[in-house]
């Protein structure tokens, strides 16, 4: 666990400092490599996802170029190709390292494209989403930045680029297809359309909290009718008591704090269309978690994709601040609290095993 605390404490400021270095590219390559190594060389028994990937990687290496519909072709192809040149034990770490290099590089490119102070981005990113995705849910770690590249292309009226990003994302994690559902939910004008969507989701969330059985029955029926294997797996896990209940306070408190800080500074960025779209995405993430709360695994997985926009909001906000020191201090305190939550309370890691 210590290596991830070091990444959070030093990484943001080293990335920001690299912008002024003559050797910027070399410094960033080194940083990405070191951070990817921290992901790759964590003990296999440090979290349940890492243990699951151990079995997945073994199965892919032993397969005969055949895979079921649950395994995305991009991840399968990468792992299978590496298995031809690496032994079983080395392969476990190599897959994590290569995927982490790809996912962190994509996020660095995304942060640079959106603009703003890199330390603002990385403080929030390293505190939670890095641990959740790049260090554990590695396929989703590649898909998430590509989803946001797709959203940016959508805003720039480049539909084919957006579709290309969605396809690339779905090659590593099928959640990349969510971008196709996100596009119609977002409102460039921030007008009545988004207000109606927000009100509808709030109402559905109210119903979900009052009577979760209605939703569970609906998901069960959907799984039966369309034969969604992944959905059935989640239902089976729910029956086994995995993520049976959610703690709304623990889950939403960090995001509500971020949301309030952004709204307090609204007048500074109110004319920034990118900020408006990212804030809409963030609000949708909070509401979708409540709406899907009867089905906790799905609620966490889907809302995390939307809530990643909080990282982008924190970074882009720096473009609109004259004095960045005060907000940087807030982000250090905020992300430190988030980091403690992620490591010791969220259940991402098996702390005793580390």
Major beta-sheet overview: none
Order of helices and strands: HHHHHHHHHHHHHHHHHH
Strand fraction band? under 5%
Kindly report how far apart the N and C termini lie: 7 Å
Rg for CA atoms: 20 Å
Give the integer mean of the pLDDT values: 86
> Helicity, in percent?
over 70%
Structural class by SSE content: mainly alpha
Which regions are unreliable across 5 or more consecutive residues at pLDDT < 50?
A: 350-354
Q: How many extended strands?
A: 0
The backbone outline, from C-alpha atoms, is globular
Helix tally equals 18
How would you sum up this structure, described in words?
- With 354 residues, the chain is mainly α.
- It has a domain at 186-321.
- Helix content is 76%, strand content 0%.
- It contains 18 helices and no strands.
- Helix 1 packs antiparallel against helix 6.
- Mean pLDDT is 86; it is low at 350-354.
Give a quick precis of the structure.
The chain has 354 residues and is mainly alpha-helical. It has helices spanning 2-18, 24-40, 48-62, 73-83, 88-114, 118-134, 138-155, 159-172, 178-185, 192-210, 212-226, 229-239, 248-264, 266-269, 273-291, 296-307, 309-317, 325-344. The protein is 76% helix and 0% strand.
């Amino acid at each position: 666990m210590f290596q991830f605390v070091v990444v959070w404490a030093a990484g943001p400021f080293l990335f920001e400092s690299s912008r002024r270095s003559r050797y910027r590219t070399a410094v960033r390559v080194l940083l990405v490599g070191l951070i990817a190594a921290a992901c790759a060389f964590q003990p296999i028994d440090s979290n349940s996802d890492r243990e699951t990937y151990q079995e997945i990687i073994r199965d892919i290496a032993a397969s005969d170029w055949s895979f079921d519909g649950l395994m995305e072709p991009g991840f399968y192809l990468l792992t299978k190709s590496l298995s031809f040149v690496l032994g079983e034990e080395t392969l476990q770490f190599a897959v994590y390292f290569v995927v982490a290099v790809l996912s962190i590089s994509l996020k660095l490119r995304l942060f640079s494209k959106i603009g703003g102070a890199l330390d603002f981005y990385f403080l929030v990113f390293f505190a939670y989403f890095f641990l959740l995705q790049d260090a554990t849910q590695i396929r989703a770690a590649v898909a998430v930045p590509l989803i946001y590249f797709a959203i940016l292309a959508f805003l720039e009226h480049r539909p084919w680029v957006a579709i290309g990003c969605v396809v690339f994302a779905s090659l590593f994690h099928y959640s990349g297809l969510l971008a196709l559902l996100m596009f119609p939910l977002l409102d460039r004008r921030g007008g009545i359309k988004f207000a109606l969507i927000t009100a509808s989701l709030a109402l559905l969330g109210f119903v979900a909290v009052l009577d979760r059985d209605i939703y569970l029955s609906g998901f069960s029926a959907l799984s039966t009718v369309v034969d969604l294997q992944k959905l059935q797996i989640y239902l089976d896990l729910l029956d086994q008591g995995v993520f049976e209940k959610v703690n709304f306070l623990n889950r939403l408190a960090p995001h509500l704090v971020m949301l309030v800080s952004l709204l307090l500074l609204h007048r500074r960025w109110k004319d920034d269309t990118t900020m408006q779209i990212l804030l809409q995405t963030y609000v949708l993430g909070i509401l979708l978690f409540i709406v899907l709360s009867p089905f906790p695994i799905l609620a966490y997985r889907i809302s995390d994709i939307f809530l990643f926009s909080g990282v982008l909001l924190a970074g882009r906000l720096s473009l609109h601040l004259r004095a960045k020191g005060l907000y940087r201090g807030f982000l250090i305190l905020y992300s430190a609290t988030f980091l403690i939550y992620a490591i010791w309370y969220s259940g991402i890691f098996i702390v005793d095993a580390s």
